[in-house]
Amino acid sequence: MISSPNQVRRIQQLPVMATPFVGRQTELEELHELLTQPRIRLITILGAGGIGKTRLALEAAQRHRALFADGLSLVTLSMPTTADELALLIAETLDFQTQTGDLPPAQQVLEFIKSRSLLLVVENAEYLAEAAMFVGTLVDTAPGVKLLATSRQKLNLSAESLFPLGGMDLPADDSGTDVFASGCVHLFMDSALRVRPSFELSPADQTAVVHICQLAQGMPLAIVLAASWLPLLSPTEIAREMQKNLDILQTDWRDVPERQRSVRAVFDASWRLLEANEQRGLLRLAVFAHGFTRDAAEQVAGADLRMMMNLFNKSLVQRLVSTGRYELHELLRQYALERLRQADDEHAVYATHSQYFLNLAAGLTAQITGQGQLDALDRIEADFENLRAAWLWAVEHDELETVARALDSLFWYGMMRSRYAALEAIFAPTLAMLAGRLTGSAGTLRAQIEVRMCWMRRWREGAPLNPLIVDELEALLGSLPAASVDRVLGLILLGDALDATASDPDRAEQALAEAYALATHLRDEFYAAWVLHFQARHAGRRAGVEQSLTLGRRAVELRRGRGDLIGACYSLYNVSIDLLLLGQADASITVATEQLELSRKVRECSSILMAQITLGLHGLLDARFEEARLFTEASARLAADLNHPLGIAWTNLIRGLLRWFDGDFDGAFELLSESVDLATHDTVRFFLDWGFTLIERPGAELQAQRVRSLSYAVRIGARGAQRLCLPAWARAAAAMGNDQTAAALLGLAEGAGGWLGSWLDLTGLPAQLERRMGAEVFDRAAVQAAGADMGSVAAALLTAADGGSGGAVLTDRIRQANEQLIEPLSERELEVIRYIATGLSNREIADQLVVELSTVKKHLTHIYGKLEVLNRAQAILRAQQLGLV
Fold first, then answer.
1. I need a labelling partner for 801 at 20 to 30 A (CA). Which of 392, 419, 642, 841 fits?
2. Rounded CA gap, 721 and 774, in Å?
3. Helices H, strands E: what count in the chain?
4. d(CA 386, CA 167)
5. Cα separation, 429 vs 218, whole angstroms
């Protein structure tokens, strides 16, 4: 006989938790929506073992007890369960006595509860495969009963509403108070204080705790077990152990079910639920680092769609809705990799993985360098960790030809996404493994990597000033394939180094011309555009900024036409700087703004950095100081994040000048001084010298900085840059009593930018000149000079500085330095070394001195001997060290 309804009391069969519930507020709100909808009567919280399904279900049930007149009940399963066995468990929790007779227990329980208002929480519902039809019938016949199940796999019932559960929310980073808003960190701290009440979170501990939460990927069980080690280990030590030993995550707490005393036990339970083919598939999926696509799963692991669905339904594979990719929980992956190492096909699985991803990268090269660039870069980015693992495995197993085919794709991804450290983490161990192998495919691959590492250093740090780099590049070229893009890269770098160090400008031009011819022969517009990019810089130094601008615009158009939008960003930067130097501020701002917008679109961080720097510089020059400050502070943060020396040099320079205009003169000088060793690019060196002349800290170097900055502006034919230099020369002239010259220079400087008015106010130069000359005379001198030829005036200033009183300080310093030599240079030899340092070729020096080319070569031979050097590059470096230039 079945008990009548009035024999049932209100049920409250949920356990009382000994610890507070932490986090999961979003999940509780989403469960509330499901629990309060009458049509939804079966909810399965689906997730891996240890992910916190049961704790969440119990908390949600307690918060909704008022909705169920007949109460709440918990049924816990520990083994496969039939319908009658489930019915008996439900009856026990409801204090309902089934009767022996014709009706089976399942039918009796259905009859008993069909009119009840109950919430049944069913824990470990993965054991309900044999009782699934009973659960479906219960849901259909008992409209007032809801089932809230926790399971590692779906019940596969039509009435089932799935609630996938992942890890707890992770902190965005390891800094700031936002860390404590993370459910993971909150749970760790709550657990930590139970095992070590005196525990306090130091900054170092905070970083380690965030790392622990990341390694656990928000798995509550793993976090609690990790915290249990605090009486013995520091958070940093716990994190280190987690990375190498899954068994750190276990405990001997007696009141914890055995299946939850370790993460390994949790995974063992899930493993036993798998069919043999699913176990094989799971092991192979473990080779993927940071996720995988469906195609990769099938090609590498042999996991077809049905297997993927089975593993997903058993909470072993997770699908990331935002990306459409799949992943294993990292601790589960670690568990599966341990088992894979014991399998017979481990080597074959890794070989297939390596070949798949390196072939993928090789196939994306054309897209990365042209049309489809962004999609290809995103594809590489999504699988970068897989590619890194595939690359290193292939190098270790001597699959070097496959590696070489993927090289360009991986390299340009790293450059275009500013992943310099990530590239170094691949290239450095590769070179270590190839050390000593100088011939064959190993020697070629080593040279191909080394030339790209040189490129990466050049890109981050600016043009090389150390002449020794020329010899290194010459040697490297001999190891690169003759008709290859690798050689194009090497020739570009060689031309750039010869140009930047003024070692041999003629040879620099030849190297770049050879690079362009080779890129054209290879029909590679991507590399041809790169040659144009560097030819523009070389032309700026030799033929003037107008020629640089012409070549830069050609590079922009070629890159746009090919679809190389990121390359177009780089060339737009050069164009914007050339326009700035020419004094075409509005056009420069337009191009820099275009560069910034395009850089943000393509997510190229180093180009974003340089565009912001250009706009910050314009803000400074236009006296829009607040705008300049915003751009420059953003640039300073980005330069630091990227570890970008050239960007740091620029931002220190602009920030220093902003400080000077704010009245912080000492702070300005300190910031500019910090840029001296970092300023390896000729344009930033010009602005640095110019900046020092503006803030005018007394010293022998001041006149040299005035001369260097104006000489550079004259040499490249940059009228705008020349105009920027004139106010400092006017101040120097006034200090020497040449008031007429000072007034004239100020008149010619009109139009240099809004900064000039602020600078004149701070220096008081106009008022000083008006007092000494009279306002009318001062104004007349300024007006009359306004129509003078800029180039002629600049040349006259430099001539006077070299031979007149204005150059006395510089001449004395050089003479004193020269006298320290065992055999001092002659006056003519000093003249030749100064011309060499400005980048002139032997022929150009001969023209300047009106002598034969052979005479210049004789002077060079004498200079090399006296300075104890072997070539022009070493001579320049030695002369700079001695203070001769």
1. 841
2. 30
3. 45, 8
4. 23
5. 32
Residue linked to tokens 């405990």: 251
CB 625 within 8 A of CB 658: yes
Q: What is the DSSP letter of 804?
A: S
Grouping H, G, I as helix, E, B as strand and the rest as coil, residue 145 is strand
Cβ neighbours of residue 635 under 8 Å, at least 6 residues apart? 609, 612, 613, 616, 647, 650, 651, 654
Under 8 Å between Cβ of 559 and 521: no
581 contacts 545 by C-beta, under 8 angstroms: yes
Taking each helix axis from N to C end, the angle separating 682-695 and 645-661, rounded to the nearest 10 degrees, works out to 20
SS3 360: helix
- Average pLDDT of adjacent 10-residue blocks, the chain of 885 residues: 39 69 88 91 88 88 88 85 85 79 81 87 88 88 90 87 87 66 82 82 82 83 82 84 75 58 78 88 92 94 91 84 86 88 91 96 94 93 94 95 95 92 93 84 93 89 70 90 94 88 81 95 94 90 89 94 93 96 96 96 93 97 96 95 91 96 92 86 90 80 85 91 94 89 90 92 91 87 79 84 47 71 84 80 76 83 88 80 80
**Strand 325-327 relative to strand 318-320: parallel, antiparallel, unpaired?**
antiparallel
CA-to-CA dists, residue 582 to 540, 579, 708, 788, angstroms: 12, 5, 18, 17
Query: What's the burial of 655, exposed, middle or buried (CB within 10 Å: 0-12/13-18/19+)?
Result: buried
CB 628 within 8 A of CB 619: yes
Nearest C-alpha neighbor of 45 from the set 134, 132, 155: 155
Alpha carbon separation from 591 to 210, 553, 566, 580, 718 (Å, rounded): 42, 11, 15, 10, 18
State whether residue 343 is helix, strand or coil: coil
Which tens digits make up the pLDDT trace of 53-72?
888 998 899 889 889 888 88
Query: From CA 362, how far away is CA 88, in angstroms rounded?
Result: 61
Coil, strand, or helix at residue 879? Answer: helix
| Nearest residue to 77 (alpha-carbon basis) of 103, 54, 100, 51 | 54
Number of other residues whose CB lies within 10 A of the CB of residue 872:
25
Are the CB atoms for 170 and 218 separated by under 8 Å?
A: yes
Say if strands 318-320 and 160-164 run parallel, antiparallel, or are unpaired: unpaired
Distance CA 412, CA 355 (A): 20
CA distances 799 to 252, 381, 707, 793, Å, are 87, 56, 10, 10
pLDDT value of position 803? 54
pLDDT, tens only, 695-714: 987 654 788 888 889 998 99
Residue partners of 115: CB distance under 8 A and separation at least 6? 5, 142, 144
Number of CB atoms found within 10 A of residue 808's CB? 12
- In one letter, which amino acid is 229? W
Rounded distance, CA 850 to CA 384, Å?
59
- Residue 72 phi, psi (nearest 5): -125, 150
